[in-house]
């Protein structure tokens, strides 16, 4: 059997038989991979705790006919314990993992940027950003916009999404794909409070110093991010309502 090594984020797990689990991974080099981890539910397992959701690991696997098999696991970032002990961190991480699972639809599809975004966001949840700690929902909203942008669904936050007119447009239309001018503004567009569009730009570019905003602005932006994400993923994320609950 051919073996390979890779870094990965554990997206989710499912029980298999009496002691095994099927692990869904987002790998740095191999994209999304589903693999069997044998015996990890036994108390004697050497790496069961290293294969919990949201953990960043270095793995050795061998290629199987339907599912690969994990043979070694070394923890690179022990994020699961910190995230699972805090409801806000856990729900944000769950949204991000579910999004990654949906955005990277095909197994083995190259997804380096998606891996880097997710692993960086999980580390930021636990350790803070380069500009200091930020609320879990702020990191989650930034991840959602950047993940969708990497997948080809970047929101337009400067020029009008319909006619391309430049200017400080104050309305946002999810179906149109971003900000819209007054002339192009379709029915159903939102007119968020001042500073919201600038804040969305900061989230999209990862400008963490610019994400220190009024709570009302952050809440308004979260609503837009949630609607934009749901629109482009075509059906809602099960965990998103919990993160904003």
Describe the model.
With 245 residues, this protein is an alpha+beta fold. It has 2 domains: 3-80, Nucleic acid-binding proteins (OB fold (Dihydrolipoamide Acetyltransferase, E2P)), CATH 2.40.50; 128-243, Recombination protein O, C-terminal domain (de novo design (two linked rop proteins), Up-down Bundle). The protein is 36% helix and 21% strand. The protein has 7 helices and 7 strands. The chain has helices spanning 79-84, 87-103, 112-127, 136-150, 196-205, 215-233, 240-243; strands at 3-16, 20-27, 31-37, 56-62, 68-77, 171-173, 178-180. Strands 1-2-3-5-4 form a 5-stranded mixed β-barrel. A two-stranded antiparallel sheet has the order 6-7. Strand 6 (171-173) and strand 7 form a beta hairpin. The protein is elongated and about 65 Å long. The model has no long low-confidence stretch (mean pLDDT 93).
CATH superfamily of the largest domain: Recombination protein O, C-terminal domain
- Structural class given helices, strands, pairing? alpha+beta
Secondary-structure element sequence?
Answer: EEEEEHHHHEEHHH
Give a short account of the largest sheet.
5 strands, mixed, barrel
Helix content: 25-40%
Average pLDDT, all residues: 93
Across the major sheet, the strand order is: 1-2-3-5-4
Number of strands: 7
Outline, from the CA principal axes? Answer: elongated
Radius of gyration: 19 Å
Q: Summed up, what is this model?
A:
By secondary structure, the protein is α+β, with helices and mostly antiparallel strands. It has helices spanning 79-84, 87-103, 112-127, 136-150, 196-205, 215-233, 240-243, and strands spanning 3-16, 20-27, 31-37, 56-62, 68-77, 171-173, 178-180. The model has no long low-confidence stretch (mean pLDDT 93).
